[in-house]
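Holo prediction — S-adenosylmethionine.
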Amino acid sequence: MRRGVDPQRADDVADAMREVARTGFLPAEQRGFAAQDRPLPLWHGQTSSQPSTVATMLRLLEVPVGAHVLDVGAGSGWTTALLARLVGPQGRVLGLELDPELARWGATNLAAQGVPWASLEEAVPGALGRPVDGGWPRILVSAAARSLPDELVGQLADDDARMVIPVRSTLLVVVRSRRSTTVTSHGSYRFVPLR
Ligand SMILES: C[S@@+](CC[C@H](N)C(=O)[O-])C[C@H]1O[C@@H](n2cnc3c(N)ncnc32)[C@H](O)[C@@H]1O
């Protein structure tokens, strides 16, 4: 894996998706379907998201090299690894996954990628996200909330911070600046529920 993305590159998300193979984040029996643009089953009813949807979400997130990113619903570790590729070694990515077994497997998948600036941990039940000093410049959420969670909006940094999150079936981008928080809609998608 190359380290970091040249900020001048036209499509760093496409580069990241080429370099971080989905096969490394699928159960053995699903690996043969990795190239298909559809969600694939992991286990416990959870899924590896559709690649084109993942690419859309990463583009909407506008991830700068060196950014700190929170990845809520990290599942297999694939999005965490893609984010690690986008931020490069100057950055930091924390993936959180609620399902304990999936979190352990996802952390193993991620470790195999050689990106020590990214980690994947089991989420604390009942505590959405992970507050940090100064807030997160970027938050990606890969499970659908019933309404926009104030708890996660409050974990964004207060200047030029972005969160991409599905709410019910609509993909939202939340942009937080010192003066305001804006929310825009970016199409309809299906996700497993945020719990
Ligand atoms: C679409 S799936 C996984 C996609 C994942 N990003 C990947 O690359 O494989 C969404 C995941 O969100 C997890 N999830 C749901 N609610 C959560 C929460 N409150 N905190 C962390 N993970 C959560 C589910 O267990 C599920 O594994």
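READOUT: The first strand starts at residue 40 and ends at 41.
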